[in-house]
Structure formats: structure tokens, C-alpha cells
Amino acid sequence: xxxxxxxxxxxxxxxxxxxxxxxxxxxxxxxxxxxxxxxxxxxxxxxxxxxxxxxxxxxxxxxxxxxxxxxxxxxxxxxxxxxxxxxxxxxxxxxxxxxxxxxxxxxxxxxxxxxxxxxxxxxxxxxxxxxxxxxxxxxxxxxxxxxxxx
Length: 150
Hints:
The protein is of the alpha/beta class. It has helices at 12-30, 58-61, 72-84, 128-136; strands spanning 33-40, 43-52, 92-97, 113-118, 139-142.
């Protein structure tokens, strides 16, 4: 999840947290395994180590804050590493971002299915999240629409 300073704009981080809770709840109901990486500044933080999904609530996501730049390539590379080490089941990558980065990393090879959720709400949209999804041949979801995960 992109936690850069631009995600604070227009309530994007709050909406991303809400979507994150929904995704985690669905994973819990399916007994899926999950992990969470948050990236901002020059740091990628493993907020939730790979494990079986459990019940989630607002208290769990409240401490996630935003600030700094968008190390998109670093975050994607770290996600690819986590996925590569996961059990041989279908591996999904959900990238929640506003796309406010000039980086265009390669699609993670370990992701069987990739989804880019676009939180861009800028007055002058750059459409980088959409472009990234297209280059990855990934599913693209504009955040203001409801998400159909599987």
C-alpha cells in the first residue's frame, strides 16, 4: 500500500485503509494467506508478515500514516520477493496507490494475478496507476467504484 504524502490528499489514505479492511475481511472468510507492505519515503515496511488472514478492525489500520515520497519500485520489488517465497497457491498482488510516482516498475513475476487500485484524485490526473495496470496486464480498479475482488 502506497503511504506516500500524496495519499493524504482528498482522503485517499482513509479510503485505501477502508479498502484494505474489506480485502482482509474477504481473505479471512476464504482462509487465505496475506501480507501487507506499506511504502513511503525510502522505506518499505512489512506491516503484516505472511500468515493466514484473521479478523481485522479499524484499530489495526489506524496507526498507518502517510508521508514522504513514493518508492514504488522498491515496494513492488519487495512484494515480488514475498510472493516468490509463498506457498505454491494462486498468488495475488493488490497495489493500492494514487500513482503519483514517476517510476514504472516491471510486473512482479511471482504474482499470478495483479490488481492496481487507483486512488488518484488530483485536479490534474496523471493516470499513472492506469498506465501501470496496462503495462502489467493487470486488473485496474478506480477506487471510487466498489471492488469485486475475485
